[in-house]
């Protein structure tokens, strides 16, 4: 009897446990329903503000989903979630959705930032008054017109000089003689340099290797031997080109005696002497050196005058010119020192060419600047009249 009672109790306990499990399974939240609750607990953006479901609404929803007769599938959960986003204004009115204080959606923040940037731009970019634009446009048109007229005038000057036949025929200062100083290293380079000069119109060249007392240099006899070889080679290529010989003399003590002894050479055997000084030399020393030459019967031609700051003063230049001293400038210096040419202070232009890779004999660009800047009379005196006086006195 006792055994039967025990069996009945065990069976009853098992039945009650089964009923509890079934009740738990029927009233629990499955995974799909949990997704709906998560969606309901999220935040909503509507008309620039952020909203979130109230706690009461979430509790009611959870209670509804936990009912025994509710067991959502994935499709039903998706449909249920979609319905949560319907009728937002009504839910806001009923208090189901409440605004989240102190938080704005990213879209609103970006819009505010954009407005601030546009406001800042408008503040920085102040509108330019129309009259200022008109004045600037007028200045621009005037500048363009001035440049056009200036270029037309330059072209006419160049054309007039060309029609007058004023071309650079002479080069009285260059280092083209091969292998005698820091100029052309060999015969082929010398011929190439002469070819460049010939193509630019040069027909008369005085070769002027350096002569520096106390330094090693070729004797006059050696220079004449090299001159003969160069004349023969150049004559085959450029038969119209005439070559003569001189020295660029470093103005040291005793230079007049070396000239008298024919150890140092004048320009082509004329009375004209190409004189070089140290760039930092003072004006009194330069002037004294020139006076010694003049007392000995020579006419000084100061080489590359633009290198001597002591000379490039108006009162000093005038004193030189008053004494009959000639000033030679290198072609390459025309762009920087054209004002001295325009003022009439320069008597000669030469290449002072040393090679094909440095201080070359090219001067087309500089010659154009000369034509654009100076009058026909100035160009005639510099390119033709003065060098022709020197060339006409040559003896070799």
How would you summarize this macromolecular structure in one to three sentences?
The chain has 396 residues and is α/β, with parallel strands linked by helices.
Low-confidence stretches: 1-26, 104-109
Strands across the major sheet, in which order? 6-8-9-10-11-12
Number of strands: 12
Helix run count:
15
Mean pLDDT: 84
Attribute tags:
396 residues, alpha/beta, six-stranded parallel beta sheet, three-stranded antiparallel beta sheet, 12 strands, rod-shaped, disordered N terminus
Task: Describe what you observe in this structure.
With 396 residues, the protein is an alpha/beta fold. The protein is 54% helix and 11% strand. It has 15 helices and 12 strands. The strands form 3 sheets. A 6-stranded parallel β-sheet has the order 6-8-9-10-11-12. Strands 1-2-3 form a 3-stranded antiparallel β-sheet. The protein is rod-shaped and about 135 Å long. The N and C termini lie far apart (162 Å). The model is unreliable at 1-26 and 104-109 (pLDDT under 50).
Secondary-structure topology with pairs:
Elements: H1 2-27, H2 31-40, E1 43-46, E2 49-53, H3 55-65, H4 74-84, H5 88-94, E3 97-99, H6 106-124, H7 130-163, E4 170-171, H8 187-199, E5 204-207, E6 210-211, H9 220-237, E7 242-245, E8 248-250, H10 255-260, E9 272-276, H11 283-295, E10 299-302, H12 314-323, E11 326-330, H13 334-342, E12 348-350, H14 364-373, H15 376-392
Parallel strand pairs: 4-5, 5-7, 6-8, 8-9, 9-10, 10-11, 11-12
Antiparallel strand pairs: 1-2, 2-3
Helix pairs in contact: 2-4, 7-14, 8-9, 13-14
């Amino acid at each position: 009897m006792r055994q039967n009672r025990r069996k009945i109790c065990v069976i009853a306990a098992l039945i009650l446990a089964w009923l509890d499990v079934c009740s738990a399974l029927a009233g629990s939240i499955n995974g799909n329903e949990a997704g709906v609750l998560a969606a309901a607990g999220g935040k909503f953006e509507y008309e620039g503000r952020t909203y979130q479901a109230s706690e009461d609404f979430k509790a009611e929803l959870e209670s509804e989903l936990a009912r025994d007769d509710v067991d959502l599938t994935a499709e039903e959960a998706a449909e249920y979630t979609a319905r949560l986003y319907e009728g937002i204004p009504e839910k806001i009115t009923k208090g189901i959705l409440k605004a989240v204080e102190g938080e704005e959606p990213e879209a609103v923040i970006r819009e505010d930032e954009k407005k601030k940037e546009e406001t800042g731009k408008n503040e920085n970019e102040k509108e330019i008054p129309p009259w200022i634009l008109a004045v600037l446009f007028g200045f621009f048109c005037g500048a363009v017109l001035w440049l056009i007229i200036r270029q037309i005038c330059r072209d006419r000057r160049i054309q007039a000089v060309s029609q007058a036949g004023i071309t650079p025929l002479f080069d009285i200062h260059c280092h083209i003689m091969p292998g005698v100083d820091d100029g052309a290293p060999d015969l082929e380079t010398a011929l190439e340099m002469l070819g460049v000069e010939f193509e630019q119109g040069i027909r008369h060249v005085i070769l002027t290797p350096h002569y520096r007392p106390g330094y090693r240099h070729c004797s006059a006899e050696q220079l004449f031997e090299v001159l003969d070889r160069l004349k023969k080679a150049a004559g085959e290529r450029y038969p119209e080109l005439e070559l003569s010989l001189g020295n660029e003399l470093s103005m040291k003590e005793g230079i007049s005696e070396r000239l008298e002894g024919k150890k140092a050479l004048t320009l082509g055997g004329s009375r004209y002497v190409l004189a070089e000084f140290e760039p930092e030399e003072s004006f009194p020393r330069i002037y004294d050196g020139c006076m010694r030459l003049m007392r000995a019967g020579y006419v000084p031609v100061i080489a590359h005058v633009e290198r001597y700051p002591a000379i490039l003063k108006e009162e000093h230049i005038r004193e030189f010119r008053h004494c009959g001293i000639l000033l030679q400038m290198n072609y390459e210096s025309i762009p920087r020192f054209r004002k001295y040419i325009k003022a009439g202070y320069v008597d000669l232009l030469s290449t002072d060419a040393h090679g094909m890779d440095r201080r070359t004999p090219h001067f087309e660009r500089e010659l154009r600047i000369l034509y654009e800047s100076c009058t026909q009379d100035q160009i005639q005196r510099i390119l033709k009249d003065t060098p022709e006086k020197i060339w006409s006195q040559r003896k070799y």
